[in-house]
Structure formats: C-alpha cells, structure tokens
Amino acid sequence: MSRFLPGWPVLWLLAWLVCWIAPPALAAAVQVIDDRGVTHRFAAPPQRIVSMLPSLTESVCALGACGRLVGVDRYSNWPASVEKLPRLGGLDDALIEAIVALRPEVVLASTSAQSLDRLDALGLKVVRLKSDSHADTRRSLVLLAGLLGSPQQAAQVWSAIERDLAAAAARVPPALRGARVYFEIAGGPYAAGRSSFIGETMTRLGLVNIVPAELGPFPKLNPEFVLRERPDVVMGVQHEAAAMLRRPGWAQLPALQQGRRCDLPTPAYEMMVRPGPRLGEAAGILVDCLMSMSAPGAAPGAGR
Predict the structure, then answer these.
(1) Is residue 9 one of the residues assigned to a domain?
(2) What's the mean per-residue pLDDT of the chain?
(3) Which residues constitute the domain of residue 118?
(4) Same domain, residue pair 43 and 110
(5) For the residues 97-110, what does the mean pLDDT come to?
(6) SS3 for 181?
C-alpha cells in the first residue's frame, strides 16, 4: 500500500501554489503618504488612474504606466498618447461626476486642488502632491514609482533629469553666466521666484533670478518691481511678448530694447512650467535661447 494518501499530488500542488503565489500577491500591497500627510493604502498597485495635473500625467508616463491612465485634466498634452483620454476639467473646476464615473482606483492632484475635496467625501483616494521645487519633483517621482509598483524607476528618471541639467549648464555661454533674469508666468505679472523649480533650474545654469526667494515660489509682482531691477534677460511665453512692451515703461527696459529675451513657443513654455520628468530638457531649451543671444552677429530678438 502506498504510504501517501489518495490525491496527494493535487494537495502538494495546492500547497506549492499557496507558498509561491500568495506571498507575491501580499507583497504587492502599496502604502504611500502624500504631501498632506494622508496615508493611502492599496491592496495592489492601482491600474485605473486619473491625473489632474500635467506634470503628474507626464511623470506617470515617464515611469512606464501611461496605459493605466483613464482620464486627465484639460491641460495634459504630453506624451501624445494622453490626448485621446477623457478630459476632466482643471484644479478649480474638476468634473466630479465624470471622474467618479471612470471608477479610478486613485486620483493624482495638487495639494491646492480644493475643488477635488468632494472626491474625498465620496470615498475616492486622492493623492495630493506639491510641485514647487526640484526636491518636490524628485519626491513625487519616488512616491509615484512606489505607488505604481516599480520603485526602481524613480532613480532612473531622476538620473536622466540630472544628466540633462548638467549638460545644459555646461553649454551656457560664458558671457551670460551670472546674467540677471526675469521669468514671467503666463498671465503676469506673476513670476518664477528663486525658490521655485524654475528658479532652481536658473541657479543650476549659473543665472541670477531677480525675484528673491523670500517672495515665494510664484509671487504676483508690481510691474514697477521689474523696471527697478532692470533684468539682463527677460523670459516668458511667446504669445504674450507684445503685451509686455505695452506696459508703462517696459519698452525702455534694456533687455527688451536689445532683444535679450526668450519668447518661448507654447510647447517649450509648457515644458518649462511643469515640474516633471522634462525638467532637464526644459533647461536645454533655455540654454539654446541664451546661445542664440550670444552668437556673433545675432540680431535683436534672436532669442525668440
């Protein structure tokens, strides 16, 4: 008589499955703490994600999870694949019912997105992240990579950003190192201050931001502040360049008179103002503009 009970191979197989399949399933549980200090727990990395901020949309895609996005805010437009996703409004006018209808396992948003508070009340998990500085961007990448179940990806993405920032800094024309710069946020007179991620990029490039850190990351300025500071270079979005010249006294700014300006086309400007995986690429675009200003025989406005 066999010393094994009838059906022992089946029992052995079931035991093997429990030992080798169950542990990974348990290990797939995810916990993250967002920038409000709220802890979010997931039984497994979420597969249905709504992103309500372009920089977070780009970060999810850079981390290899673009296919998990089921909806995005109205401004997310990179990479091109997100263009076909449902549009869910913005931070101030989010389409709550449309978001709920998509049955997301998690909604990614800014800490300032008050219009999304209703989602919390409805039981959805809203992970809110800050995006003022380079450190915020790096921390968000680490959190998102962990949320997506691929924590190793964050280091790879950040390494590429650092590589691009270093390459851009090495190309800044010597004559423009230390140049005093004003970067205007669309719909000015808001500006990117020294403590913002844009200001930190300028510092990495050896430029001096005329807006001091104590004014905050993105302060609203009196236009006379810029007149007093007389920046060496003015940067902003291309379609608002003409409006700058119509401001009282601004036509007399040497930077505008002599064409020391970077009038960024909308796609390049959007890259600059999104604290995501294209930070390094954005720095390269600014340096391209600076190089065109310092080129021999460059005409006024050559940096546009």
Answers:
(1) no
(2) 89
(3) 27-150
(4) yes
(5) 98
(6) strand
The per-residue pLDDT for 295 is: 62
User: What's the rounded Cα separation, in Å, for the pair 290 and 261?
Assistant: 9
Query: pTM of the entire structure?
Result: 0.88
CB atoms within 10 A of CB 179: 21
Contact 70, 102 (CB under 8 A): yes
- CATH code of 208's domain: 3.40.50.1980
Q: Check whether residue 192 and residue 139 sit in a common domain.
A: no
- Please tell me the distance from the alpha carbon of residue 238 to that of residue 289, in angstroms, as a whole number: 13
Question: 303 or 132: whose pLDDT is higher?
Answer: 132
**Nearest in space to 76 (alpha carbons), one of 278, 241, 280, 238:** 278
| pLDDT on residue 91 | 85
Phi–psi pair at 65, nearest 5 degrees: -120, 30
What is the spatial distance between Cα 231 and Cα 208, in angstroms, rounded to a whole number?
Answer: 9
Same structural domain, 134 and 197: no
CB atoms within 10 A of CB 106: 23
pLDDT value at residue 189: 79
